[in-house]
Amino acid sequence: MKTFYKVLLGILFLCITSISTAQTTKEEVFDNIKQTGGVYFAYPSDKIKPETPSPKGYKPFYISHFSRHGSRYLISDSEYKDVLDLLVKAEQEKALTPLGKETLHRLQKVWEEVEHRGGDLSPLGVREHKGIAERMYQSYPEVFEKDASIYACATTVMRCALSMDAFCERLKELNPNLQTHRDASMFHQRYLNHHTKEAVAWRSAPDTWRIEYNKFEQEHIKPNRLVQSIFSDDTFVLRKVNPKDFMWGMYWIASGMQNIETETSFYDLFEKQELFDIWQCHNYQRYACDANYALNNGLMFENNKPMLRNILDEAEKAINSNKRGANLRFAHDGNLVPMALLLHLEGCYESIENPYDFYKVWSDFKVTPMAGNIQLVFYKSRDKNEPILVKFLLHENEVLVPPIKTNNAPYYEWNDVKEFYEDLLLSK
Question: Where are the alpha helices (DSSP H) in 344-413?
Fold first, then answer.
């Protein structure tokens, strides 16, 4: 009877996760147009589902965590300023429509917040990581009892270090007795932000993916309607405006508004289909360059093997020490994507080559939103003869690892998990 209930719970969990990891549809994206921001999609804390009860007699004791930094400003000031300067020039030459003038005034308001902030963690990014830390503490209080040990590390990029600080600060507020160690250095960056020479060469080569991508982009980026709605002078457009660049620039600004404090929007400048098509292009780039695009021949699996080695080694240390605590790691979207791929998290490692179907099987906003994270939560039984169990979370939602077998989903025996990943580390 006990086995029957385990299997039944596993079946119910499979049903729930099959819905949550189903293929992306255009209708789904249209329902929340902010998702077209892709990697700029703010952390979806409203999508966190209740967790499956832990098996009888089991309690959590250790968490292995890896996260992208929280919400940030666009990567450089120029992403705002280039568009702003163009609109200012157009206004000076009386080349703006009424909508163009309104867009300029909105962007000038945005500039008051974003100037000198390119690439910085935003206040929302701080709140995102504090929220994740608090929910982790509340969900697994046993991990953070008394003077549990927390080891946190980040890349040397400031937004990652500040994400780490926000996370650890909230944990210390909840339990001042926690023993926390924080480090942002090249020592950890070696594995947190590792890219093989082969992967870098693939991304930058002119003939690996770009030729086909450029054709796809030309088909999907249609800037004329937007340009005509903003600029009133065809001669100014002919001489001063690159329509495709302008559309991309406005898209990034519109997408990034969800990450900052200024309460204005630029989505009204676009039709939903336009946003969907631009997002498909960016999603194409991310899939080809960081994920399991069929034509990159699995190159991206190699990028996060040093990270996986660290995860396995630190987990073994935690198990053997018989102590409680967590390892926290903070890096970038280009690290989270191949990490989810290498771990074989459901919905994160599918491999296809038809670009028109990329978004259906792999969507960047589902894999690596701002503050996106992977957690491995480890459980021990009161009965020392019972195996260590582990479950996987993606953005705080339970997720399956389909190649690893279990009769107790979403819980896996650690020895099975470790064996699968050790074999992956040996493979080429």
Answer: 358-361, 364-367
Helices (H) and strands (E) in the chain, counts: 18, 8
Cβ–Cβ < 8 Å for 350, 371: no
Maximum distance among all alpha carbons in the chain? 80
- Banded pLDDT at 5 (limits 50, 70, 90): very low
Exposed, middle or buried by CB within 10 Å (0-12, 13-18, 19+), for 46?
A: exposed
**Domain annotation for the chain: domains and CATH numbers:** 2-71+123-209+280-426 (3.40.50.1240)
- Please list, in sequence order, all residues whose beta carbon lies within 8 angstroms of the beta carbon of residue 313, skipping any fewer than 6 positions away: none
DSSP SS3 for 124 = helix
Comparing C-alpha atoms, which of 285, 298, 299 is closest to residue 210? 285
Residue 427's pLDDT band (cuts 50, 70, 90): confident
pLDDT at 4 > cutoff 60: no
Distance in angstroms (rounded) separating the CA atoms of residues 318 and 62: 7
Buried (b) or exposed (e) across 147-159, using 16+ Cβ within 10 A? ebbbbbbbbebeb
d(CA 56, CA 62): 18
- Report how far residue 156's alpha carbon sits from residue 331's, in angstroms, rounded to the nearest whole number: 9
pLDDT tens readout for residues 98-135 = 999 999 999 999 999 999 999 999 999 999 999 999 99
d(CA 136, CA 323): 18
